[in-house]
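User: Let's play a game. I give you a shape written as tokens, and you guess the letters that built it. Ready? Here's round one.
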């Protein structure tokens, strides 16, 4: 019987790989494809029929958390992406595939309007100020033969609490090229009124862009040896999809500014910025004092100073984040895994793979911390999105979380993050319920594991309006025992995603 074989297989895999001493990652959100909170049915119908909304062309890519919401980016790589920045509620929910709400509004996601958001790959949120920093690459349909280059790359800062933009900065051509740049990731350095460090994944001119909030000015640091692709790492496989491309610097992570040592708080404004080209096995870092020195970007030349090479990882990586204790988390794409490294230990001996799963961790793309010690990862199967057509009849996007005890590298122990003390001047309504914590190593998981997806038809305005994944009424099982076994498999695999 097929169900019995699946159950035996699932039990074998779990028995072979689970390490009960480690925290468990659990699926908390899952989409076959994403849909949106449309103003009304007629707007949805027109967008669907006019192909302003093409379900299989929408992919979620970046993820951050702030006060009961996940903020998610949808880069406009293909046509038919109606919104490029959205948010969904975090915390307890019976709906594991919620509709995406364009953020901060539908109007600010209007494609073709250069004052609005055009192509957002990643964001960062400062938990102390409640401000979201948005990098907008400008060009859209970047995977097509003729990308649309109407708007310049820009950086925007939006105050979530006051609901208004506080900064719009358009990058000059020598920093972020109108036709050649690809703004990929961003971290924030809150020293000296604030800096943003942004990776430019450009094929022609990769580097780290620096924006100074104090001077309202930007420049780019270039270092070909560490920021360009390594041809030896250009080919790898993710499940049955082969990747063959020379992809330059992508994600980056910043070491914490404030840490405890012997019960003393130590403030360090000279921090390490960690990064790696996607097509590379090496992890590098450059000191923030270098990035903040505009002279190193003079005459568009190469930085000639010290860049640290920590050695090799087990695979190529695209997503990474560092917590407030200096622990780095990063994806291992070819291994369908997640690794961690305590930066206080040697890199070559201190790396540890903490999760591995071919089904549930197919292309881990982004990471986010909440304020309760939970690490949430975003999985988006980008390998299939680029090289194949996504099937909307099976799960493609997941948020998977575990309590690892860390918080964002931006978390400042001198700042009180209690919503009750920071929301008096806020126009955002906050809930009074306590944010649940994912308990490591137990089955007392407050989040619901999604049930196995039923086969789904191509979405239509009638079937898809008001739904996120186009699901139809579940078909009754042929036997109650098979339904129970299927549910058990779901709990075993989704609720206890293997860790090693």
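Assistant: Ready! My guess for every position:
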């Amino acid at each position: 019987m097929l169900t019995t074989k699946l159950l035996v297989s699932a039990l074998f895999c779990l028995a072979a790989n689970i390490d009960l001493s480690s925290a468990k990652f659990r699926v908390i959100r899952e989409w076959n494809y994403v849909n949106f909170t449309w103003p009304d049915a007629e707007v949805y119908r027109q967008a669907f029929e006019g192909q302003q909304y093409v379900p299989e062309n929408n992919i979620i890519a970046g993820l951050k958390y702030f006060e009961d919401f996940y903020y998610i980016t949808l880069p406009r790589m293909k046509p038919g992406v109606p919104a490029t920045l959205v948010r969904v509620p975090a915390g307890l929910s019976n709906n594991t595939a919620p509709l995406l709400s364009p953020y901060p509004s539908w109007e600010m996601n209007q494609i073709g309007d250069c004052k609005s958001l055009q192509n957002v790959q990643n964001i960062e949120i400062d938990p102390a100020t409640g401000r979201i920093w948005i990098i907008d690459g400008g060009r859209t349909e970047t995977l097509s033969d003729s990308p649309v280059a109407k708007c310049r790359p820009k950086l925007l800062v939006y105050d979530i609490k006051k609901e208004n933009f506080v900064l719009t900065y358009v990058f000059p051509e020598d920093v972020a090229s109108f036709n050649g740049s690809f703004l990929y990731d961003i971290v924030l350095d809150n020293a000296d009124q604030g800096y943003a460090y942004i990776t430019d994944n450009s094929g022609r001119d990769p580097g780290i862009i620096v924006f100074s909030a104090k001077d309202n000015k930007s420049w780019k640091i270039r270092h070909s040896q560490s920021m360009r692709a390594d041809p030896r790492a250009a080919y790898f496989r993710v499940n049955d999809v082969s990747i063959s491309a020379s992809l330059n610097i992508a994600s980056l992570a910043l070491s914490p500014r404030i840490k405890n040592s012997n019960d003393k708080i130590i403030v360090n404004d000279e921090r390490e910025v960690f990064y790696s080209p996607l097509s590379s096995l090496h992890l590098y870092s450059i000191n923030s004092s270098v990035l903040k020195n505009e002279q190193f970007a003079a005459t568009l030349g190469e930085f000639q100073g010290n860049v640290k090479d920590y050695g090799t990882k087990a695979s190529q990586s695209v997503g990474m984040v560092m917590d407030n204790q200096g622990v780095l988390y990063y994806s291992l794409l070819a291994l369908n895994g997640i690794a961690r490294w305590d930066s206080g230990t040697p890199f070559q001996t201190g790396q540890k793979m903490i999760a591995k799963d071919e089904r549930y961790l197919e292309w881990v793309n982004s990471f986010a911390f909440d304020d309760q010690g939970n690490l949430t990862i975003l999985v988006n199967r980008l390998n299939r999105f680029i090289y194949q057509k996504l099937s909307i009849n099976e799960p493609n996007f997941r948020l998977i979380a575990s309590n690892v005890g860390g918080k964002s590298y931006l978390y400042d122990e001198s700042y009180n993050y209690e919503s009750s003390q920071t929301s008096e001047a806020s126009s955002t309504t906050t809930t009074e319920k306590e944010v649940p914590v994912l308990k490591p190593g137990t089955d007392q998981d407050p989040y619901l594991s999604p049930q196995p997806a039923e086969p789904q038809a191509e979405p239509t305005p009638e079937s898809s309006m008001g739904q996120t994944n186009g699901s139809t009424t579940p078909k009754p099982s042929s036997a109650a025992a098979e339904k129970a076994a299927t549910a058990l498999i779901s709990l075993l695999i989704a609720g206890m995603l293997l860790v090693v």
